[in-house]
Amino acid sequence: MKKWNLIFDVALCTGCRNCEMAVKDEYVGNTHAGYTAEMPRHGPGWVQIRARERGQFPAVDVTNLFHSCQHCDDAPCMQAAKNGAITKRPDGLVQFHPERAKGQKAIVEACPFRAAYWNEELQLPQHWTFDSHLLDAGWTEPRPVQSCPTGALRSLKVEDEEMQRIIADEKLEHIEPGSMTKSRVHMRNLYRYMRAFVAGTLTVTKNGIEDCVVGASVTLTRGTERVAEASSDDFGDFRFDDLIPRSTDLRIRITAPGYREQVLDIEVGNSRWLGEIRLEPA
After folding, report:
1. What pLDDT was estimated at residue 167?
2. pLDDT of residue 282
3. How many other C-beta atoms are found inside a 10 Å radius of the C-beta of residue 260?
4. pLDDT at res. 208
5. Low-confidence stretches of the chain (pLDDT beneath 50)
6. How far apart are CA 280 and CA 217, in angstroms?
């Protein structure tokens, strides 16, 4: 049977937050009978974009992460629920039943992603339903996907076997512990948010004029292992990404025709710019 999945591409999100606003527009002040009570006007949204800054000036980037209910196949919230307050739909979506879930704050506390929310006024656990009321009415995608201008969000209704092929082909990952709970929200280019980078700029002084070094070979190693290779661009810049934060056992080797080889032992931290690295003529 075909089931719903969501894919978020970290590299494509610009942080416009259209998805957040679409969900607020759909649920604030609106009760969808049989699906959910209205979202509180104030407080955390059921869908959030979380931003993270990496690096230091001038090598800085800001990446974003989509945060929502994961619609897990092995959902901890279902284990904490009583009286059938939460069910798993045949199409893969987790359904909170407001008429049965009232007073069950343990449902919120059970979510390892902190994506279930307690409505204090209604004494009710709530979550983003994947806009199941709209999908049941014939919509082909939920509102966050519909509102995303960059294609960072995609929804797919496919057989589990087909989804496994897509996961492998696109190298999709989960926010942990999503692999244990069998999350239906998948991440592409997750390293852009979770991992670290190191960057630098190669320069040289010629006849009293400072210039950049183009096309130098830059190799990143860990012990005897070659981790990655890069070339300095037209501005003398190079960059290595997808590194383990706070790595301390890395070495950079820089070679370029006409210049002395440079070797640097580096610590990554939480992403860093190595500054200008001046090469000397051979």
Report:
1. 98
2. 81
3. 11
4. 84
5. none
6. 15
The rounded distance, in Å, linking the Cα atoms of 107 and 192 is 31
Is the bond leading into 177 cis (omega within 30 degrees of zero)? yes
pTM (2 decimals)?
Answer: 0.91
> Is 39 in a helix, a strand, or coil?
strand
- Start-to-end CA distance of the chain, whole Å, equals 66
Residue corresponding to tokens 């003398």 = 236
Domains of the chain: 3-193 (3.30.70.20), 196-278 (2.60.40.10)
Distance CA 109, CA 160 (A): 29
Torsion of CA 271, 276, 277, 278, to 10 degrees: 180
Rounded Cα gap, residues 40 and 54, in angstroms: 33
Q: Tell me, what's the pLDDT at 248?
A: 84
Contacts (Cβ under 8 Å, ≥6 apart) of 109? 80
Amino acid at 8: F
* Euclidean distance between CA atoms 179 and 192, whole angstroms: 19
Q: What is the pLDDT of residues 248-257, one digit of tens each?
A: 889 999 999 9
User: Could you tell me which residues come within 8 angstroms of residue 257 by beta carbon, excluding any fewer than 6 positions away?
Assistant: none
| Res 207: pLDDT | 82
Nearest in space to 96 (alpha carbons), one of 140, 56, 151, 133: 133
Q: Which amino acid would we find at residue 275? A: G
pLDDT of residue 188: 98
